[in-house]
Amino acid sequence: MYIGRLERRKGVKYLLKAYAVLAQKNSNINLIIAGDGPSREKLEQLSEDLKLPNVSFLGYISDEQKIELLAIADIFCSPAIFGESFGIVLLEAMASGTVCVAGNNSGYIDVMKELGTISIVNPQDTEEFARRLDLLLNEQDLRELWQNWASNYVKQFSYPN
Question: What sign does the CA torsion over 142, 148, 153, 155 have?
Answer without folding.
Answer: positive
